[in-house]
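Input (UPF0178 protein Pden_1915):
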Amino acid sequence: MTTLYIDADACPVKSEAERVATRLRLPMVLVCNGGLRPPANPLVSLVIVPEGPDAADQWIAAHCGPGDVVVTTDLPLADRCLKAGAQVVQPDGEVLTPANIGPRLATRDLMQDIRAADPFHQGRGGGFGKAERARFLQSLDRVMAAAQRIG
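Output:
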């Protein structure tokens, strides 16, 4: 059965993901370091991992597999999930695949190097609004349908 895993720390689309999981009657797992209330929805569970770097990422990567969907902005986690057979959607609606994760990781690493070399070079994050939420919902619907065929 398809499970929707959410890298929940600072995820801006938890409620949208819950709506999709509820509509499809599929389990959703919020994974975080704490600070979230236990969900009232019986389809949604909360996993609180110990404090520490990448603890939530490690938990998600260890539990996801073919037919599952992961929502994350963390590219190394996305790479691990894709290698485990899961599908990955970013909160902005971009679907990550084995074909596009390599260039995304390379760009991420390059930008980290640039920021380390020039502390005044900071990225300018765009806003997150209705258009991004709508794009996320469309992508998640499409990916969940494909995942259900696998799982």
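Residues 81 and 117 are 30 Å apart (CA to CA).
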